[in-house]
Amino acid sequence: MAARRARRLLGSLCIALLFAQPAPTGAAARSGSRSLLTESLVRTFTPFYFLVEPLDVLSVRGASVIMNCSAQCETPPRIEWKKDGSFLNLVSDDRRQLLPDGSLLINSVVHSKHNKPDEGYYQCVATVDSLGTIVSRTAKLTVAGLPRFTSQPEPTSVYRGGSAVLGCEVTAELAPLLRWERDRQALAPDRRVLQLPGGALLLTNASDADAGLYRCALDSGGTPKYSDEAELKVLPDAEEPQRLALLKPPSSLSRLPGQRAVFPCVAAGFPPPLIRWTRNEEELPTDGSGRFQLLPGGVLEIRDVAEADAGTFTCIAESGNDTLEAQAELAVQVPPTFLKRPANIYAHESMDIVFECEVTGKPTPTVKWVKNGDVVIPSDYFKIVKEHNLQVLGLVKSDEGFYQCIAENDVGNAQAGAQLIILDLDVAIPTLPPTSLTSATNDHLAPATAGPLPSAPRDVVATLVSTRFIRLTWRPPASDPQGDNLTYSIFYTKEGINRERVENTSRPGETQVMIQNLMPETVYVFRVVAQNRHGPGESSAPLKVATQPEVQLPGPAPNIRAFSGSPTTVTVTWETPLSGNGDIQNYKLYYMEKGQHTEQDVDVAGLAHTVTGLKKFTEYSFRVVAYNKHGPGVSTHDVVVRTLSDVPSAPPQNLTLEVRNSKSILLQWQPPPAGTQSGQITGYKIRYRKVSRKSDVTESVGGTQLSQLIEGLERGTEYSFRVAAMTINGTGPATDWVSAETFESDLDETRVPEVPSSLHVRPLVTSIVVSWTPPENQDVVVRGYAIGYGIGSPHAQTIKVDYKQRYYTIENLDPSSHYVITLKAFNNVGEGIPLYESAVTRPHSDTSEVDLFVINAPYTPVPDPSPMMPPVGVQASILSHDTIRITWADNSLPKNQKITDARFYTVRWKTNIPANTKYKTANATTLSYLVTGLKPNTLYEFSVMVTKGRRSSTWSMTAHGTTFELVPTSPPKDVTVVSKEGKPRTIIVNWQPPSEANGKITGYIIYYSTDVNAEIHDWVIEPVVGNRLTHQIQELTLDTPYFFKIQARNSKGMGPMSEAVQFRTPKAESSDKMPNDQASGSAGKGSRPMDLGPDYKPPLGGSNSPHGSPTSPLDSNMLLVIIVSVGVITIIIVVIVAVFCTRRTTSHQKKKRAACKSVNGSHKYKGNSKDVKPPDLWIHHERLELKPIDKSPDPNPIMTDTPIPRNSQDITPVDNSMDSNIHQRRNSYRGHESEDSMSTLAGRRGMRPKMMMPFDSQPPQQSVRNTPSTDTMPAASAVPSAELPEPEGPFLPAEEEPQGPPTAHVRPSHPLKSFAVPAVPPAGGPFDPALPSTPLLTQQAPGHPMHAVKTASIGTLGRTRPPMPVVVPSAPEVQETTRMLEDSESSYEPDELTKEMAHLEGLMKDLNAITTA
User: Fold this and answer.
1) Is the distance from CB of 468 to CB of 520 less than 8 angstroms?
2) Exposed/middle/buried for 895, CB within 10 Å: 0-12, 13-18, 19+?
3) What is the percent of the chain with per-residue pLDDT over 70, rounded to a whole number?
4) Confidence of residue 820 (pLDDT cuts 50, 70, 90)
5) Are 232 and 207 in contact (CB under 8 A)?
């Protein structure tokens, strides 16, 4: 014992002397030094490192190459070489030989198409037999291929003083061997002549002496190889301006730090262009003082490239008013460098150690470890931790040696090493615990003192055995029964393996330990050693314990990488899983577009796969899961990669032209759709030409702005324009040609505008609709209109609107108040003369809007020319969840619908949810427009107006469209959890639907778990089908906190999850009711109303009244009987009248024609009935319900709201084959009318002014019939339908609102308008506001004065509709219409038809009395 203490004291003294010496500056052994101790005590670290390592070499065929290598060690090392991972046999090789310093000499490099024995990767290996082996970095030998030109010079010409580029491209390895000749003489050095990195020749400031024949030559050993000769002609000085063009734009580069980068930007034009450069949109200083230098010809040179230089470089060429831009990317790649090198380590056997290695580089380097020249294969005892560090568990003597960390990326590799020395157990480690020792082995480092050692611990048993951990317990040794000051070391190893690991107890006196990270179904041998302050004692007897078996699933596949090979493909590679148990059967590759929520997967048999069909320039995430016979293993982390960019695949959208004056036109457009841009838009190319000279095209390249003012155009000339988007890859497809004509002369803006030609007001309860027409003198510029209003004075508030606008709604007014309104046109000179009007807002109790009303007001004459016709045939085509295409036709255009003038169209759209949503507008110069940025699953209405010069139409009829559904974008709201009354193991989860459901919710998924931080796939799932908002979960554990999340789904997929809500179940089952249980219990007993769902329809009989009171079935049946009876009588009378009219004699016809001529002598009729226009015979009735007759089964969500008759031939009476269908649908069309009756009624039509009114909104399934007319436009009427329960007709119960977007439905006029049986009104209750509808625009018959109709509306059953502002001819009141009818009929049929009409009027009064009773 004394000898041992003396030996340890001597060891401590020698260690102090050793570490008092300064350490040398070697590589792997800088901390080592010559020790004064013997080998049996503390061995020192031996310096063993490379002085010189091989570097990459470029050679040519037949040349000699030297790969340098030199290693340093006390004992001269033996040098060997590897090529492509295999040792070279240099003894029998006559071309390769080892030089004395260790370098490799290769004589006469061999290289051919099919034999390349010398090209490859070389590595120097240095070995000292008694010490170990180290390897150098790998060096690549590249042999230049056969001399070959990828492009040849071509003849070209250049103006004197200009720049020219002669192309001669070769591969990258041959570029340094390229030179140029002129007239077969080598080019003399000249600052004006520059050879670009790819091989092309740049000639600047050309002179006559530069003309000649040029060729390039390749000197790759032996006879040079020449290209074709190309002649360069030098032209005299340019006198006329030459168009700016880029001869050599810059191309993207990748460089290493310290290298040189050259970006060409050669432009030609007259005046000579000026070149400037920007980096990341910041101006570059190119004065030559820094690393950035501008060479002749606009070439940018970057010397000594740094990592911070990476970015986007933009070349801007300017010549006169022309500007061109071109961009290129500079990528700076950095070879691997070490931030932390491995350190030398002393250790004992059974310890765990970690070699640390931290590297950086770009791209991120990969790391592998080498021990004595052999690659370390990860296993149970050699593990890669924290990405780059090497952990060795349970050291044994054979683990000694040199360990090297080798880092590698695409541009280089590097190595750093350290030495491991394992000391005897009785030799203390000579330093404090370094960071490379794990906590489980630190206790070995305390020096021991002399004294009694503890005996073996007693009764070592395994109290808990699992698949991957074992808990051991024991009793203290017999020598120290209390054991309060003892610590314990637990040594364990696999049975049959001599590599033993150690685990230490955490505090003195502890007699149990948990051994973790074991392998399943494996036998381990454990022994326990007690240790006191004197040292370790005896070991316990070995204990064998077998871990439990488990399902062996693969671990994550390491080193997953993804890179894009093209704009539509990504290649993913990975390696075999490190922790996989059992053979890997296959892999599943998952990928998903960024921003989406649905993953796609593909089965893969190997370790790589290329995914095709991806979107261009789009980010995707990829992950891999390995499968064995037990199922899927652990997923890898996600790797994100963006596909490469490409030229845009679609043109810019919504190109519009606005003629500014006689010499300029403003172009405006929107970028291509997001999914078609295929990259970052770098600019837009504009091409324009005169329509009369299609071959003369002018091109202009602009920046990324979305508008361009084209100036310098000719007066009164029509130009066509098209725009194309550009990326760094090129130019995409262009838009269609769009034409506009410049003004003949500029409008006058030297004076203020004149007074507007008319002003109309329409008062509502809290708003006033103001509409107007522009000044008659349209030669003066109008920039906009100023609207002033106030109670008693128009100067309280002022609103300014755009010059294109023709109406405005003044909101937030007081009911029953007198407002004065003024309207003034203004321009840059000032405001014009005002026009005044006054109006009184309606009281709150006013319900007259549900009836037909006409307000006559003083009329301001409409200026001549009259307003333009509005667009017709407006259709809304739903394209996606946020995009709708609007199309229309323009009857004022020729039949081919070609726009040849400077008109443009304004599209407006809005949604009625919420009700106060304002219109959004956009301009278009074509007959379609793509509306984007809409909300999913939302109903929108659209209308269009046309403007030409200072003339504008009214708004067209509306079209409606509902966008497609999208996955919910918000989670369910108000998630609450309560206990169920009397059942503490059952809870009730309540929630509210998401605020952004984006469609009909089809179900929910409830996730719950006791660990809020657990992975989501470990949570328990409870599905909820339908739109229920509550769910019970049973059989939970008492007194346990649970966390709940909810996710909504619709037909498009799953939405986001709600935040976790915590709830702790009660401690014990109790019959007492908790407060929250009472509330939930009462709800569960039926106090909550049953959710009938959005598709629920009340019974046909109308058992539910608006106020919830049931309607008696007897009353409903009586009403139906009365309605059916009166309807049948009415139809019989109408048929009798029709038959009577067809039997009129020829004398009656003559009498009626004479009467027609006497009534309206301006109309002249031919005998052909095809020239006759149908009458407008209306019988007005309060709350008259209009419903469409036919119902189209077409599910296409394209709605048309603009019926315009094409010609009078389209309007014909129905034939006999249609009568049965007509009667089934309860319409009251009359049958055949004779030619005379039609002409007579048509003659009366010329005397009767036409009337406009909005029509009810109907579901999109209802068909719309378009019958345009080249004549005047007849007033369209919706055919009323009797409220009878017919299955064929479009019958709707009074309580039921039509489902779907409202659409105006119009039928062509018939020779006799329909009489409608009034519907039974509902049993009181408020009216639901319906969607507003745009009135039809009609033309005034020639020769008749126009009247102003303030408002016109038809109240529908059970709903109110605010009338829209319109400027239309006035219609007579109901009584006046009846008198006119009676007068016109009596003029030619004094006895018969008058009696029939009087009888009908009496029937209608009786019917009105019945319905109002």
Assistant:
1) yes
2) exposed
3) 71
4) very high
5) no
Instruction: Tokens 């939405």: give the residue.
Output: 1055
As to burial, measured by CB atoms within 10 angstroms (0-12 exposed, 13-18 middle, 19+ buried), residue 557 is buried
Amino acid at residue number 793: S
CA-nearest of 989, 1005, 981 to 1061 is 989
- Per the DSSP assignment, residues forming a β-bridge with 707 are 668
- DSSP three-state, residue 1281: coil
Residues 6+ apart with CB under 8 A from 166: 153, 154, 156, 180, 200, 201, 203, 214, 230, 232
Using CA atoms, how far apart are residues 1043 and 1057, in angstroms rounded to an integer? 13
CA-CA distance, 128 to 134, in Å (whole number)? Answer: 9
Least confident of 501-510, 747-756, 1306-1315: 1306-1315
Burial (0-12, 13-18, 19+ Cβ within 10 Å), 45: buried
Which residues does 592 contact at the CB level (< 8 Å), separation at least 6? 598, 599, 600, 620, 621
Token couple for 206: 């050309």
Whether 1287 shows a pLDDT value over 90: the answer reads no
Digit-coded pLDDT (tens) for 700-736: 777 788 998 998 898 888 899 999 999 998 999 999 9
Tokens representing 449 are 């003192």
Tokens of 679: 């990259």
- What percent helix, strand, coil does the chain show, rounded to 5? 10, 35, 50
- Non-local (6+) Cβ contacts of 1366 within 8 A are 771, 954, 1252, 1335, 1337, 1349, 1351, 1352
pLDDT in tens, 782-793: 888 999 999 888
Q: Which residues in 519-530 are b (16+ Cβ under 10 Å) and which e?
A: eeebebbbbbbb
Q: Are strands 523-532 and 458-465 parallel, antiparallel or unpaired?
A: unpaired
Rounded Cα–Cα distance for residues 696 and 1255 (Å):
51
Max intra-chain CA distance, the chain: 155
Q: Which residue has the tokens 């890669």?
A: 384
SS (H, E, C) 79-121: EEEEECCEECCCCCCCCEEECCCCCEEECCCCCCCCCCCCCEE
Closest of 480, 491, 416 to residue 453, by C-alpha = 480
Indicate whether 1199 pLDDT > 80: no
**Token couple for 275:** 């070149």
Could you tell me how many residues make up the chain?
A: 1413
User: Would you give the end-to-end CA distance of the chain in angstroms?
Assistant: 124
Q: Which residue is associated with the tokens 């702790």? A: 1064
| 8-state DSSP, 748 | B
Residue type, 339: L
The rounded distance, in Å, linking the Cα atoms of 121 and 713 is 65
Q: Is 1176 helix (H, G, I), strand (E, B) or coil?
A: coil
Q: Which residues does 1123 contact at the CB level (< 8 Å), separation at least 6?
A: 1282, 1283, 1284, 1317, 1320
Which of 263-272, 538-547, 1157-1166, 1359-1368 has the largest mean confidence?
A: 538-547
Q: Which amino acid is at 506?
A: S
Encoding tokens for residue 196? 């670009």
Is 45 in a helix, a strand, or coil? coil
> Does 1236 score more than 50 pLDDT?
no
Residue 1261 has pLDDT above 50, yes or no: no
> What percentage of residues in the chain have a pLDDT greater than 90?
25
Residue 872, amino acid: V
d(CA 179, CA 1062): 77
Q: What is the mean pLDDT of the chain?
A: 74
Q: State how far the Cα of 299 lies from the Cα of 292, in Å rounded to an integer.
A: 10
**501 HSE (CA, 13 A, CB side):** 21
State which H helix or E strand residue 1412 sits in.
Answer: helix 1392-1412
Averaged pLDDT for residues 1222-1235 = 39
For residue 460, the tally of other CB atoms under 10 A from its CB is 20
- Phi, psi for 1399 (deg, rounded to 5): -65, -40
